[in-house]
Design brief:
241 residues; alpha/beta; Rossmann fold; six-stranded mixed sheet; 45% helix; globular
Length: 241
Amino acid sequence: MSHHLFEILILNGRPASGKSEVIDYLKKTPLEERMRRFHIGKLDEIDDFPMLWTWFEEDAILEKIMHQPRLHTDRDGYFLYEYQWHLLIERISMDYNKHLRDNPRLHDDTTALVEFSRGTEHGGYQAAYPHLSDEILRKAAIFYIDVPFEESLRKNRKRFNPAKPDSILEHGLPDEKLTRLYQEVDWETFRGPDPQFVTIKGHRVPYIVLHNEPDVTTARDEHLGQVLEDLLGQLWRLRHS
């Protein structure tokens, strides 16, 4: 394990809050600079969006091509069961364990970057986080990007590319679905009264918040770099306090 790198960084926030833009900025920062400024090494990305998008694609194949019942979602694209949200988190834990199994020295030079978003309508962060493994929670630090719902809605509309609905940077949700799923979030309740740590299954996990209004992530410029350097530096010190 490197003593200079985050082992696991969890990115949370509403859709279109800036999570994917932060990841894109980090990926385009040269490795040595990324390690020095942000305590982030090579990136092992574990995002639940490709997992849930696979369910949408499978349902489309089943219904339109094979003329069979949909397995995961209804025709409006909502999950059939609330526990499917938690299944995605369990899948994140499973994927991480497989990566660590295949490379026990993963964290010598690599930061696992875990990304997901949860709204109160489907259980929120309070319901999601207990489904992360103890292995993840023991090593994790949380980076939360805070935007009001109106900003999430604006950026979701702006980024959506109907030709690439499966794209990490260009996917979007219809207004009605975004409103139902993400208008209300439970981050404030989830993090509780401690301004630095949240306790999950007995693990004290440090967190930091980027208040992304006005928007500092879209430009992906050096101003974002300075903001990330400051916040991730604070988070690093919490992680090792």
